[in-house]
Amino acid sequence: MSWPQRIEQALAERRLNAAYRRRQTTEGGNGRQIRLGDRLYLNFSGNDYLGLSQDARVIAAWQQGAQRYGVGSGGSGHVTGFSAAHQALEEQLAAWLGYPRALLFISGYAAKQAVLAALMQKGDRILADRLSHASLLEAAAQSPAELRRFQHNQPQALADLLAKPCDGQRLAVTEGVFSMDG
């Protein structure tokens, strides 16, 4: 079967199984509400849980930041320097949370990679909920530790894995919002 035929067959199967998806153009950003044509929908699939992307105060702060610092990073803080704005934010977050220090990461994915790589060593074991976000599972798989997954929201399955012998340390990881399965 040729490549065009394979592609057409795969698309036909997706249409038959109601799994064919088409991108839809939205108006006004992708916050808590999305406008498609003349209809407004609540967005339960995005990451703007608090609606901050459309908050007037946040938008004004971004505008002020763009005026002062420009737009775009210009490079990693390791290459072009750590900005005073980032340092101030880390200090404010640490004070607000009651800790001596805070550390900002570019994304949750980067934070997971850095923390698991720093904490875990060869011979250690990471135990992860099967429905944890793909970024957490990938970070665990890329760490030097062995990754074992347990059945979603099953404390006994986790306890069974914790009871198995391990040469090093064990770390159970999970999350509060299981977004991978909707």
Fill in the keyword field for this structure.
182 residues; 12% strand; two-stranded antiparallel sheet; 3-stranded parallel β-sheet
Explained architecture:
The chain is of the alpha/beta class and 182 residues long. It is 42% helix and 12% strand. The strands form 2 sheets. A 3-stranded parallel beta sheet has the order 4-3-5, with helices on both faces. A two-stranded antiparallel sheet has the order 1-2. α6 (134-142) links the parallel β3 and β4. α5 packs parallel to α6 (134-142). The chain is extended, with a radius of gyration of 22 Å. The two termini are 35 Å apart.
Distance between the termini: 35 Å
| Quaternary structure | single chain
Instruction: Give the overall pLDDT as a whole number.
Output: 90
Strands in their spatial order, largest beta sheet: 4-3-5
Helix-strand pattern: HEEHHHHEHEHE
Shape: extended
Alpha carbon gyration radius: 22 Å
Structural class comes to alpha/beta
The largest pleated sheet is described as:
3 strands, parallel
Query: Which stretches are poorly predicted, pLDDT < 50 over at least 5 residues?
Result: none
Strand content: 5-15%
Tally of DSSP helical segments: 7
Helix content, binned percent = 40-55%
SS elements, strand count: 5
